[in-house]
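Please annotate this fold before class:
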Amino acid sequence: MSTDTDGRIQLEYGLEDKPPLSKSILLGLQHVAVMIVPATAVAFIVAGSVGLGAGDTAYLVQMVLLFSGLATIVQSYTIGPVGAKLPIVMGSSFTFVGAASSIGASAGLAAVFGAILVTGFVVEGLIGWQFKRVKPFFPPLVTGLVVVIIGLYLIPVAMDYAAGGVGAADYGAMYNIGLASLVLGVAVALNLFTRGVTRLLSVLVAIVVGYVAALGMGLVDFSSVAEAAWLSVPAPGRFGFEFDPVAIVTFAFLFLVSAMETVGDMSGVTAAEGRNPTHEEFRGGLFTDGLGSSVGALFAAFPITSFSQNVGIVSFTGVMSRYVVGIGGVILAALGLSPKIGAVVTTIPSAVFGGAVLLMAGMVAASGARLVMLHTDLNRRNMVIMAVALGLGLGVSTRPDALSGLPQAAETFFGQPVIVTALSALLLNTFVPGRQSPLFDRHPEDAPGALETPTDD
């Protein structure tokens, strides 16, 4: 495993390094393997809630893959001001599943894609455009806590996959737990006890081992592969567009969550270099989120945002090369143009995927904790902020029914663990005097460069 050196991870490949092409392809494929199941699961879940047929469902999956790939390429290489030039893998986020399912079932997918089209770039584009002004409100204490909560609330999702998937008839079966344990064990063993390409590809190798084991157990279903076409071209406006005010307000709130997740993910990636992202990186990353989501909505893709699991891969493998992630984006886009190839990849059993994501989620949380510890004095003020933010975030994540008495819009907004953690940390850090507060950091006793002692009350 990569080790800390003066706040940095010991990187095998840095941001601008270019591994050999064959190795880069395998490393890019590893990123794809970790994110493809949860990204496409968004399309499957929403399609099932709305009651779509097999053809429309396959099309939604195809668009998720295609625009995830295109956004990943832009994030890695940039087009003008759009893109961060960071190894950020993009995909369709579970943040939007509940709203897309409920609004799609009641008002139709036209209302869903109309709302995404309007709010994607308006919300995240505005935040990205003005991020230089708002950046003081997002110091490492706030962004680090966002990274931590992203990792922590992904752990129950990973456990559900490891058990076979929510709603599966064999949920919790011993063979599912066994497959997940096999993948987790192989990944950890290869990363800790081997060197070279074997360590770098530890997650991918573990997934392959788990997949082969699942094949031997007869747990892989290839029926979807036989039914899928070899090539399919995107068609804009397939489900139409409607601009429902409730849907627009709801997705505007959720894109605020997405922006916070992306800020946290970018901070988690650059933490490998012992730093926070620059103004330009933040702005370009948020532009990619917003523009990619709005353009994708034209073709019926669900919102595209940064994928936290892949932030964990950077820390776990020590490979930060943006060129590797760019190749992963090319692979995703190619899968999006060929439904048959994508169908082969999505035959990976949930338990196999769960073993890998469980590890990645933990690495994301650890990356956030390192970001906080490297750049924040753990005095009384900051410890209280951490306690409140994480307590509220995990509280709404583990007991969402506690908010059932709120109006629907408020329940949707405050039921998001990322936004509750981020907002509580943001408000407390802003209005409580301390070095990282944008309002009070110029006080003599709290000026930049002054020391905060652990006993400061």
Observations:
- Strands lie at 4-5, 8-9, 90-92, 304-306.
